[in-house]
Amino acid sequence: MSLFSIAFAYLRAKWSNTLLHVLVMALGVALMTGLLLFGHQMKERLYRDGAGIDVVIGAKGSPLQLILSSIQHMDIPTGNIPLEEAERLKRHPHIKQLIPISLGDAYHQFRIVGSTPEYLTHFGAQYAQGKAWGKSMEAVIGARVAEKSGLKPGDHFVGSHGLVPDGNTHADHPYTVTGILQPTGTALDRLIITPLESVWDVHKEHHYHDEEDEHHHADAHDEKHNDHEAHHEDREVTALLVTYRTRVAALTFPRMINQQTSMQAASPAFEMARLVDLIGIGTDSAILFAGFLIAVALANVLVGLVNSIRDRRYDLAVFRTLGASRSKIMLLVIIEGMTIAVIGSLVGLLMGHGVIEMMGQFTSKGAEMGLRGFLFYSDIWLVWGLLLLLSLLACLIPAWEAYKTDIRSTLTHV
Amino acid sequence: MARKLGLEVQKLHFAIGGKMILQEFSLEIPPGEACLILGPSGSGKTTLLSIMAGLQRPDQGMVCYDSTTLYDLSESERDQFRGQHIGILFQTFHLIKPLTVRQNLQLAYSMPGKTSDTEYMEAVLQRLGLKDKESQKAGSLSVGEAQRLALARAIVGKPKWLLCDEPTSSLDDHNAHEVMALLQEEAQQAGTSLIVVTHDHRVRQHIKGHIVELGGQS
Fold first, then answer.
1. Is A270 exposed, middle or buried, given 0-12, 13-18 or 19+ CB atoms closer than 10 A?
2. CB contact under 8 A, A318 and B94
């Protein structure tokens, strides 16, 4: 009969205590795992979306809002800028690439982005089905849009005004799907991309109906809709995604935009770092809490084992009389404690990964972030390893207690 | 000088808190013979048994099993020796309650790291009437069954020496007779030297061999 069988028998004999220890341990580990998974994916996602974009130019306002609305497609835009300005900037010697985007409409929860073919090229879009758009009012859709909406090449759909799903629809301006993009793991997956002209065409006859709708229209197109008709001269875009020709440009170009124009320049890298830093404070506190929970679980196991060893000192003494060495007895106690730690932490890992996977599958925000549960990061393994090491150290205390058991005095004091 | 075979206890001294428990105690038991150590409560019987089992180092003196001097061994070697060659039957059985009857028996093999003898274990279970209880938890056995299991565990590893502490102390005449008969029978089957430590004079009639009274040898 192996020491493992004996340890299991003891754990089974006190199954309610064992279950409690396993659960507390599992909860701590699950919380820690979930937070680490979420934090990593959030950071990766934020940085991946802005890859290759050095600066974003848009209407004045919050730079973070500008980045979140035009790169992550999460916030409402700060406003619009004249197309003329964009065309002028395109000729600036510091600029290698300038991609205009125009926002304002959505199909269900998916945003419609007016842009140029460079937008798709920049984000490495590949077609899963169909092909690129050919003219205005044609669109390609991201992988997640296709999955959730069921749209396929040749299908028509109508956008609704504003970036919320319940805005007024542009029923007289249906879009035609020409292609479906392969998944990219970026914001592109949940976007509908169409030529800039589509956005202008949809909005050139759009009238601002009444005050009641105003809150739905609190976006980049408000100014546009105050005009009754859009003309080529006052065509606007929401933002410009800029890639520098040289790194030196970073020193002068944003300052020039901010000081000499009515627009603002915001750096995705800087704003993302700021955002991650801001969110990081919350995440760190939560991780600290998870760590505390794990420490409580370890203390719980430790106290449980010490009490259990005291209750079972006669058994341990009997094992010694049957020929077990002190180190064997110590090992038995360690196996018992480590069984709880290993099972608890494995259940916790599974729970943590499972919850994040479910958030990605079944919640709109999780889906929007593209959360995935079954990803493995080195620091999760590190936490797991550290936890097992701490558990082992914690087990050494009751194991030492067991090691010290004096057979004779124990057996003669029954 | 060649050491004698069997159990040899020489000039044991043991005191606790200045009180002398054992003084100049010596004993020789030839291989295969039985021995009864009689003495009233407080006479040092259990201390003597602990010393003979390698559980309590004496202040002076020597305990030899065949060619092995017990207290010349390191503690872990002594544990190993005890597991291999000495069976101990406790007055209070000391069964491992969360384990089944069979698992309790298996401990006699696994704790000292012996190869298990399943055939012999089956035979012991059968002889002691525990075969149909083998999957039952030790904690659920009746007193009689628990006593038989304790005996089975003590002898299943075929120890050369079986040390028994007060095996009949709480039993009536009939049951005391039964237990002693069983002990002798099992010891004989296993080829084991039976050493019984007790204050119960009823045991005297069952032991054909050395009888030692603590405080004076006969």
1. middle
2. yes
